[in-house]
Amino acid sequence: MNQQVAIITGAARGIGNGIAQRLGADGCKVIIFDFDSKGGDKASEDLINQGIEAYFFDTDVTNEKSVLNSMNLVKEKFQQVDILVNNVGITGSPNNLWETSVQEMDRVYFANLRSVFLMCNVVTPIMLQKNYGRIINIASIAGKEGNPKMSPYSSTKAAVIGLTKSLGKELAETGIRVNCVTPAVVKTKLLEQVTEEVLDYMVEKIPMKRTVEISEVASIVSWLSSKECSASTGAVFDISGGRATY
Ligand SMILES: NC(=O)c1ccc[n+]([C@@H]2O[C@H](COP(=O)([O-])OP(=O)(O)OC[C@H]3O[C@@H](n4cnc5c(N)ncnc54)[C@H](O)[C@@H]3O)[C@@H](O)[C@H]2O)c1
After folding, report:
1. According to the model, what pLDDT value does residue 15 have?
2. In which element (H, E) is residue 224 found?
3. Which of 36, 41, 197, 223 has the smallest number of Cβ neighbours within 10 A?
4. Could you report the per-residue pLDDT of 18-46, keeping only the tens digit for each?
5. Distances (CA, A) of 225 to 65, 113, 150, 232
6. pLDDT tier, 164 (very low <50, low <70, confident <90, very high otherwise)
7. Full set of structural domains in the chain with CATH
């Protein structure tokens, strides 16, 4: 993947950061889109200190104007995007559906689904110009199975799976591959948003009885980002310690 240009959203920390480190080690030029300016600066500095060509663009992926501004800068500097990893996601407040406000549903929808649509909407035409690209969306096991007290999260992650399948089919005759991964529990700051009860529920359901490592998610994303991922598109790659039954 030498010299390929990779955008990773939400890479200031957590899984996105692990993916940025891995794709950087694979030889990519790494571009971080995140709205955490301090974390984003630090993450790109860390990558640069490891000899990786890295850039941080302060971007709120729920905001169309912010995405378009950053994408204009990317187009100006690189004229191409080879890899897009849509990693931003939030859990929302842990509540039963009937106790969840419409505003909270909208907040999670904007972060988890609309942002993926927006990024794909802008980046796909750039990839089509070279007839090459790899798009990887980070969904969740919650999107397949549905977690209680997480209806906005589970439903928007299910929609990310649907979007991946649609776009994968739309682009199947081109050189662009679109896939998603569905991790189970990965220990990151995201989990601070869920209660101990929900966390125990999720780990208990994992046959391996352990959480997934960030590096394990980064490893599968690395392969999905490569030319070797040639005959898979619109597919859902499980990384759930055996929890997924389909
Ligand atoms: N951690 C888990 O157990 C787990 C399991 C399955 C799926 N996932 C998915 O993996 C992805 C990453 O999760 P994580 O645990 O690393 O999360 P995290 O909360 O640790 O990190 C999320 C990153 O996204 C950034 N971000 C959030 N909203 C943004 C916005 N609107 N614009 C730009 N940046 C924004 C944050 O600043 C942060 O850097 C998410 O999509 C999540 O749903 C996580």
Report:
1. 98
2. helix 214-224
3. 197
4. 999 999 999 999 999 999 999 999 999 99
5. 27, 21, 29, 11
6. very high
7. 5-239 (3.40.50.720)
In Å, how far from its chain's centre is CA 150? 18
- Contacts with 75 (C-beta within 8 Å, 6 or more apart), sequence order: 126
Which residues have C-beta within 8 Å of that of residue 92, sequence separation ≥ 6? 100, 104, 105, 107, 108, 150, 152, 153, 193
Pairing mode, strands 54-58 and 83-86: unpaired
Atom of ligand 1 lying closest to residue 211 CA: 3
pTM, to two decimals: 0.97
Reading the block at residue 160, the tokens are 């990310």
Q: Report the separation in Å between the CA atom of 11 and the middle of ligand 1, taken as the mean of its atom positions.
A: 8
Query: 173 CA to middle of ligand 1, Å?
Result: 31
Choose which residue among 67, 164, 190, 198 to substitute to test ligand 1 binding: the one with the highest number of ligand atoms within 8 A of its C-beta: 190
**Do strands 176-183 and 133-138 pair parallel, antiparallel, or not at all (unpaired)?**
parallel
The protein residue whose alpha carbon is closest to atom 8 in ligand 1 is 140
More confidently predicted of 193 and 230: 230
Is the pLDDT reported for residue 194 higher than 80?
Answer: no
Query: Which amino acid, one-letter code, is at 105?
Result: M
- Token look-up 């689904």 returns 113
Three-class secondary structure of residue 69 per DSSP: helix
Which amino acids bring their CB within 6 angstroms of ligand 1?
10, 12-16, 34-36, 39, 59-62, 87-90, 111, 138, 140, 183, 185-186, 188-191
